[in-house]
Amino acid sequence: SAFLGDQALELAQAGHWNIDFREGGDYYISSERTVAIFGDPPRDDFHYHIMNDWYANIEAADKAAAEATLANYLAALDGSVPRYDMIHPYKRPSDGRIIWVHVMGHVARDARGKPTHVFGVVMDVTYHKEHENELLRSNAELEQFSYAISHDMRQPLRMISSYLQLLERNLADQLDGEKRDYFNFAIDGAKRIDQMLMALLEYSRVGRKGEPPTWIESRAVLDEALLFLQPAIAEAQAKLTISGDWPRILASHDEMQRLIQNLIGNAVKYRIAGHMPEITVTSEMINNEWHLSVTDNGVGIYPDQIERLFKVFQRLHTRATYEGTGIGLALCRKIAEHHKGRIWAESAGEGLGSRFCVVLPCGGGVIR
Fold this sequence. Notes:
six-stranded antiparallel sheet; five-stranded mixed sheet; 13 strands
């Protein structure tokens, strides 16, 4: 079994290590892969001074965090900290190159609960970290680009709309019905673009630095969303049913409110003319995940069109039939993914209603 374990670690390109506290905690024993990752000079017995060879090559801030993480882990006798787990940069003494390492460990204790060993694995995750950082930079640039377009383009667009309205008023005596329609089409087009830019601006703001995640009452957030939706619900004479358990979740309050408001608002909007809308909002906890669903008896969706729903500016109905920017569900998906969750839609077809489902980690999965 030891051989198979070594082979498994080798396949994962992971090294193993073992700190022996019975020797004062100053030494660790490591595998050849660990030595190669850390760039330590090879030694026949693979014994190293941990404070000199490992922690000494970590930058001060990360070194303090690594030591504190290990100390907190060793002090958690109740098992509240499941393992030592940390990713940090490391300066290899052999070539001076900065790499990123993922170090995980588990403690062994004697009968009195005193730590005797910490053993674990280490992996070089530099490649993944560099790609992650590159992706983060790319996303930040795209978000900034989206924000700049949405924000900076609105000013000239408002000028176009305002001057068109001034022209229409000044030329009122010279305009026949057809020419007045031309002005109205242009003004409506400018206003619609402005609405789309506002929606794009809201979309770009999801996940940007701002409101930190906090513990929020999901039912309270639902009630706040319903306050904003009350006029639309009353106008549609919709029957709304709320059921299930509504847990506390670690999330962005504003983003959760937007998600719930968009889902219920869509259920109200996409109703069948002449039919009373019936909307059911259900919440439940399953395996420490929050499951939220919004079910309606509205216009429904062709199953092969469902994936289009969650893309930016994708619409299944004309604006003449249902108003909107075509970005609401894309916003919902971005919010769900920002919280490390998922969202999907279900429908048996046109005229058969829809069900939108969101699953989020209850304990807080927000990407910071």
